[in-house]
Write a structure and sequence with these properties.
Distance between the termini: 24 Å
Shape: globular
Structural class: mainly beta
Strand content: 15-25%
Number of helices: 0
Largest sheet: 4 strands, parallel
Oligomer: single chain
Amino acid sequence: MQRLSKTPFSQSDFSNATVDGRINFDKATFCDGASFDDARPDRSDAPLSFNDAKFFKHPPRFFGRKMHENTNWTGVKLNAGRKTPRLQATNAPMIL
């Protein structure tokens, strides 16, 4: 398992990254944006962990990436630096 815990990231681009095993972003802080897009024909779908991660400006992007069923979103905070939330949770299904 690769650990990137408690790491502050500015603008992060993990596009087309090959994931072998599990990547742990627990308690990481994403200050601007985070892209996990995947346009490769042999897309990986390894589990990611964002336990207690904070996304300050933008929610993470996952365009084209297969999401593993064991991806952990426990305690994630979107727009963590805002007094009023920019995004509202809905009951609409998430389409990736």
